[in-house]
Each structure stands twice: as structure tokens, then as C-alpha cells.
Specification:
single chain; 236 residues; mainly alpha; 11 helices; 0% strand; binds zinc ion
Length: 236
């Protein structure tokens, strides 16, 4: 990574993830309507709540072609299920019980994990961005640029700490601790603020920055994702 990503605010891996998710969403609208391979892949995937909302935020009549295919596939699944159920009714010994019933492959029960293609694109991009950060941290100059930047969010820093060579891991762990200590000191001012002794704290967004260091950056908002998709050029 050119260190340009470090000059942007926020976690470089989260930024790469958002960018990839936005691009993947735009490609979905632009390219996927009649692409047989893509349609087949869609029967094997489901969208997470966040990306489903982003898809629905843009009413796109051309997705009718996609969903005509997906609905046909879903009908096939339900028919297969009904056949199976009927077969078992005539063979009581093999009857499948409620809760143990096998569903057809590609069925999407809500309580089983399912891969979201947009999340997957984002995760791949984040992994690449972390590798790029790690290669920057091999040089003194890169470390200085990293220390001056917002740095990785907590969860992405843990990935980097797991995957880094020992020397970089040591340096990065010290950097993470420095950031946590500094935010901890800011948060402790809250008590002085409660006692009316620290009015400056009222404008502080320390707790928002703390969530970033502990839980990571929130995903790109749905509005952001749909707006990016909406501004992508549409070709037919
Ligand atoms: Zn991150
Ligand atoms: Zn997703």
C-alpha cells in the first residue's frame, strides 16, 4: 500500500473493506443480471442484513431477471422438499422427525451460517490492506507514518498481531497499547466532567474513538453503500 491510505482518516483495513463492498455492490447492479455463473453462485449465497438493506435501497427493475431465476430455483427446492416429505409419509420407519428433517442443499434456514458475497469481498480486501500495513511496518519510515495515522481498528490490529513477524508484532503491540492508554486517559476525564470540573469534555468524542479501538469501525452505512451504487454509471 502506498502510504496514502494511512493519510486518510480511520482504519486502513476498514476503508479497504468498505471500498470493496461498495464496488461489489455496484458490479452486482451493473453486470449480474444474465450472467449464468453469477446466478448459480447466488443460489449458494445469502446477503447479510446490512447488505440486503443496501441492495433494497436502490429500486432496480432489472433485478427482476435475477430474481426470476432465484424464485424458480426456490420453487425447485420447495418441490424437492415436498417430494421427500411425501415419500417419507408412505414409509413410516424412515419418517424424519420435526427438528431432524434434512433440508435440500441450498436452502437458507436463518439459524445456519450462510456466506454473504459482499462481506466476502470486503474481508478479502481488508486482509490485503493488513498485509500492506505489515510490509510498511518493516521500515522505520513506514512505522513513523503508521504512528502518525489513525492506525488499524482493534479487531484488524488483532489480525495484524496474529500474522506479523515477531519484530513488527512487538512494535505494533506497543503502538496499540499507546493508543489504548491515551484513550483511557481521556475517558477518565468523564468523572471530572460529572463533578463539573471539566467542561471541555462535553465536546469530546472519546467514547466513539474508544469503540473503534475495542470493537472496530462500523461498516459503511447503508446510505453510503446505496449512494455509491446509485452514482455508478448504469449500462444495459
Ligand atoms: Zn478496521
Ligand atoms: Zn454482507
Amino acid at each position: 500500500m502506498a502510504s496514502w491510505r494511512l493519510r486518510e482518516p480511520g482504519c486502513p483495513a476498514c476503508a479497504a473493506r468498505r471500498e470493496a463492498e461498495t464496488n461489489a455492490l455496484a458490479w452486482f447492479f451493473l453486470e449480474n443480471y444474465r450472467e449464468r455463473a453469477t446466478l448459480r453462485a447466488l443460489t449458494n449465497s445469502c446477503y447479510c442484513v446490512r447488505h440486503l438493506a443496501a441492495l433494497l435501497a436502490r429500486p432496480e427493475p432489472k433485478l427482476s431477471v435475477t430474481f426470476e431465476y432465484l424464485v424458480r430455483e426456490e420453487i425447485r427446492l420447495v418441490r424437492r422438499f415436498r417430494d421427500e416429505l411425501r415419500r417419507k409419509r408412505w414409509a413410516p420407519l424412515r419418517r424424519s422427525k420435526a427438528g431432524e428433517r434434512r433440508l435440500p442443499r441450498h436452502a437458507r434456514p436463518a439459524d445456519e451460517p450462510c456466506r454473504c458475497p459482499l462481506c466476502e469481498s470486503g474481508a478479502t480486501a481488508a486482509t490485503v490492506a493488513i498485509e500492506e500495513v505489515l510490509s510498511l511496518l518493516e521500515a522505520e519510515e513506514g512505522r513513523a507514518a503508521y504512528a502518525a495515522s489513525d492506525g488499524l481498528c482493534g479487531p484488524h490490529a488483532w489480525v495484524a498481531l496474529r500474522d506479523a513477524p515477531a519484530e513488527s508484532a512487538g512494535w505494533l503491540a506497543a503502538d496499540v497499547e499507546r493508543r489504548l492508554q491515551s484513550i483511557g486517559a481521556e475517558l477518565s476525564r468523564y468523572f471530572a466532567y460529572q463533578r463539573g470540573e471539566d467542561q471541555a469534555y462535553v465536546d469530546s468524542d472519546a467514547w466513539v474513538r474508544a469503540t473503534r479501538l475495542v470493537w472496530g469501525e462500523s461498516a459503511g452505512s447503508e446510505r453510503e453503500l446505496s449512494r455509491d451504487a446509485a452514482t455508478a454509471p448504469v449500462t444495459t
